[in-house]
Amino acid sequence: MNTVSVEILDGLHYIGTNDRETSLFENMWPLPEGVAYNSYMIIDEKTALLDTVKITKVDGFIDALKDKLNGRDLDYLVIHHMEPDHSGCYKTVIDLFPNVTLVGNKKARGMVKDFLDLDVENFLEVKDGDVLDLGRRKLTFVNTPMVHWPESMVSYEMTDKILFSQDIFGGFGALNGTIFDDEMNFEFFQDEMRRYYSNIVGKYSKQAAKALEKVKTLDINIICPVHGVVWRTNPERIIEEYVKYANQIHEDGVVIAYGSMYGNTEKMADILARFLAEEGVKNVKVFDVSKTHESYILSEIWKYKGFILGSCTYNNSVYPKMNQLLYTLKMNKLANHAVGVFGSYGWNGGSVRELTEFISDGGSFDVIPTIVETKGTPKKEDVDSLRQMAKEMAELIKEK
Ligand code: FEO
Known about the structure:
Blueprint: E1 3-9, E2 12-19, E3 24-25, E4 29-30, E5 35-43, E6 47-50, H1 58-69, E7 76-78, H2 84-87, H3 90-96, E8 101-104, H4 106-116, E9 123-125, E10 131-133, E11 138-143, E12 153-157, E13 162-166, H5 186-201, H6 205-216, E14 222-225, H7 235-246, E15 251-259, H8 264-278, E16 284-288, H9 294-303, E17 304-311, E18 313-314, E19 317-318, H10 320-331, E20 335-345, H11 351-361, E21 364-367, E22 372-375, H12 380-399
Parallel strand pairs: 6-7, 7-8, 8-9, 13-14, 15-16, 15-17, 17-20, 20-21, 20-22
Antiparallel strand pairs: 1-2, 2-5, 3-4, 5-6, 10-11, 11-12, 12-13, 18-19
Helix pairs in contact: 5-9, 6-7, 8-12, 9-10
Bound molecules: MU-OXO-diiron.
């Protein structure tokens, strides 16, 4: 099994697994680069395991855990987050170490019963600020509700100033030998970090921003998340990145996402993209919603200040694949974007009406006034209107 075990500091070990087998995270989000599940082991006067990994990786994980314990018993299992990619091995760990005390907040205690059908007697319920004394190392707890689940919490190791941050500061992508931030090229992981954030945590950005405010009060040397690399050299880098994500601070650029059956809406998208380039927008990304999974489109929209949606009409309505994207965008509570819409129809309209409804109630947007709707192929007046749209979008994102 591909469990990786690395010493972070004396008495603190990374025990993680790479998952390149699962196609879809939460059975929804493509994982072309895989994903890593990280847990951590503290060996002190007491022993503590912080989170586990997905059950599919249990064999190698248990071998690594026993190796680190070297014959000692496991005293504590700290629950930062109950989602099964981290709680998957709890039952096995409890079976092997029946004296272990689970440590978590009140909500986590309920979830141990709900998700694992376990009545655990040895459960230490902790609140914000409580301290777990392991000997040289001491953990204090900070609740971070809804980042990602209600029971989510982080812990802070006070001696070496280490934050165990659960899903916060995580990302998609298996760790290809690079466990630490100083061993990897940040840009290599950046897109998969943002795709992870926008799709998994994006909806809870207000709670994430609050959690980051709490975290920023801590003096942090090392960040140990449950996905992605361990930040031992430049933790400020990932904190800055997450502050941008959570507060929806976007970069200059425009995403165009379109759905097209016969090429008319696609043609409009290409004309618009060219006009945006002529207006000086240097980052223009165009996506066909039939080809690109919405998780990638959402991630790019999370990155850039502007987005424009185009749809053909299907059964007097918006194109079904565009509808899926609209659902995803609406669910994730987008904010601080400049937005425009366009579309086409053959005999009766419908798509532009629904796109217009989306931009009026689908998020907190600055809407560009020009909307372009063509019957069949775009004509000269439609092309002129697309030029006008591009001008309005370029001006709006310059102001933002
Ligand atoms: Fe990685 Fe919300 O679990």
